[in-house]
Every structure is written in structure tokens, then in C-alpha cells.
Design a protein that fits this description.
With 352 residues, the chain is α/β, with parallel strands linked by helices. It folds into two domains: 171 residues, Rossmann fold; 147 residues, Rossmann fold (3-Layer(aba) Sandwich). Helices cover 46% and strands 16% of the residues. The strands form two sheets. A five-stranded parallel beta sheet has the order 2-1-3-4-5, sandwiched between helices. Strands 7-6-8-9-10 form a five-stranded parallel beta sheet, sandwiched between helices. Helix 6 links the parallel strand 3 and strand 4. Helix 3 packs across helix 7. The two termini are 36 Å apart. The structure holds 1-O-phosphono-beta-D-fructopyranose. The site of 1-O-phosphono-beta-D-fructopyranose (F1P) has 17 residues, from helix 4.
Length: 352
Amino acid sequence: MPCSRCGEKTLSDIIETPKSIDIVGKNIADIKDVAESIVDRRCSCFYFTGCGSSYYSAMLMSFPLQVEGIEVYAIPSSEIIMYYGSRLSRNCCLVSVSRSGETSETLEAMRIGKEKGTYNVIITINEKGAGREYADRYLYIDVGIERGIVMTKSFYSMTLTGLILTSNIIDIILGNKYNMVLYLDRLKEHAIKIIKEKENIFNLGNSYVKKNINRFIFLGSGPSYPIALEGSLKLKESSYIATEAMYALEFRHGPIATVGENQLIIVINQEGKSYSYVYRLYNDLRAMNSYILRLSNRDVDENTILLSKTGFEELDALSAILPLQLMAYSYATALGLDIDSPRNLVRVVKYY
Ligand code: F1P
């Protein structure tokens, strides 16, 4: 039975995304200053870390640094504690992502880094997080509290902050000029349009419940793989159903056997190096009559939700999370579940 007042807090967080983009834009000078401090520190290796959604945020923001001569790793905080801590050194920069700035694994990863001499940066929306104790730079983005438990505007704004940070590092090192102000305008335009037309996405979520679809496979490539992971987690943590995410073309190697089941395949197909390969997979899957939803900024058909077209692939990939958050909200609500207080979830995980 659909739940009328369920998810109001989470929906209001999601609807604040355009305002959050503006607030990140107001922090560009601070972000640039942190980028300069990282370059001055001459970090030759970068570790990006976090937990849950914040780990996926860390994955995406690390992408622009995947260039010649820079060692980049995106690893969950727990794995740094258990396996990778010994590899941290003063040559490394550790960028931690944490909405609360209080998650125990992330704080411990930062402590280990500090002990090993890493240059520690944390990106957070909590002004007074415990992470301050271990941080050389504390990148606080004042988007306001997140009322819901699952991460929505915090994911978007921390990831955007991290992408501005890493693209600035590349700017300084390689002289690649990014027009971030123009990109943010286009990103905001897209967010406003998606929110204005949110009923279309709500109708999709409701239709999936009506069709008894309770298996979802999210496909993404390059910078949209972390978004596939986050979209899958959003649905899983709010509706408790079987969802999974994988690199798009990996679907051909086994999981394609599931085509024919009552499932939805969600293909994130942003313009960029992977575009034509993923578009071919999408068309092959359509020919196999699978339920499929595409998110793209090119070759838009009736089955495609529009992505932003900033010309910066990582940002266009990030733009996909907004419709996926709205879909998770509508699907949970149509099931009569309250995404504002998902079963077993806590706002801050303080134990491991
Ligand atoms: C990370 C996290 C979220 C998750 C839930 C509990 O928190 O695990 O990813 O969705 O809200 O907290 P944080 O380190 O970003 O505060």
C-alpha cells in the first residue's frame, strides 16, 4: 500500500540538490587552496576512502587523477585498516569522504594515515566532525544537515567537491584548463530540470512495483561505475531488495543469463570513452526484450532519462545519481516503506 507521508525528509534533501550545487560553487576558492596544498606537498600517491555511499563518492572523485605517473587508489576505510594501512607513507595523500565526519572506520583510517605521515584531507558536511583531529585540511561543505538517513544531497555535494579538488590538482600539475563555473551552471540546469519533471521518474518507480519487478542490475563504466554502485545501494537500503551493480560490459560475461527474469537493467551511458560500447550493449539488450532503462546525454530515445551535458565526463556521470535517488524514493514509497528510516540503518556507524 503506497505510503503518503513516507520519505518526506529524504525527498526534501534530494530537492535541495540545485541549492547544494550553488553552495559547492561558493567554496571553489577553498577547494582550489586545498588542491594547491596537496600539490605543494608533492604527493605521488593518492588514497581515496570512505564507507558505504561515501566510499562510492571517493571512487568517483579519484577518477580525474587516473593519469600517467600518479598512483591512485579508492579503497573502503575498513580495507585500509585491515590490509592497506602499511602501504601509506608521507609520499601519500589520503582523501577521506564522510558526511558525518564521525564514522569509526574512516576516523581509524585517517589516524593510521596520520601515523604514517600521509597528508590528510577530509571532505564532509559536518563542521565539527571528529575527523578534525587527524586532518591537515578539513573541507567542510555547508549544505546544511541531511534530514534523511540515506545519503542524497550529501553524496552529490561531497562528490562534486572532490571532483573540483582532483580536477584542480590536474589543472595545476598538467595545465589542463577546466571551466568549472560553466560546468556547475550546466549541472545545476540539469538538476532543476530533473526535479521539475520528477513525476515522470515517480511514475517509473510506481510502474516497477506494479509489474512486481524486484531485481535491479545497474551497469556503469569508468566514472559511472561508482554511480551504478550508489544507485544500487540506494534502492537496496531503502527497499531491501536484491540489487547489484557491475561494470557494463562485464554483463556479457555471465550475468546476461539473467535476461528473461522479471528484472530491470539500468544502463548509465554517459558520453565519453565507454559511450559506443555501452550503447551497443544497450541495443543488444533491447533486442532481447529485457526491461531496460538508460541514462544518457546522447541518442536519447523514449527509454532514456537525460544526463547533464557538461563535457566533463565525471560530472555527467555524477548527474545520473539524482534521477536514481528519486527512483529509489518512489519505489520504496510505492511499496509502503519509509526511506526516511530504513530498517537496521543508522546515521553514523560507530562500530566495526
Ligand atoms: C557513511 C554511511 C553511509 C550510509 C549510512 C551510514 O557515513 O555508511 O554511507 O548510507 O548513512 O553511514 P559517513 O562516513 O559518510 O558519515
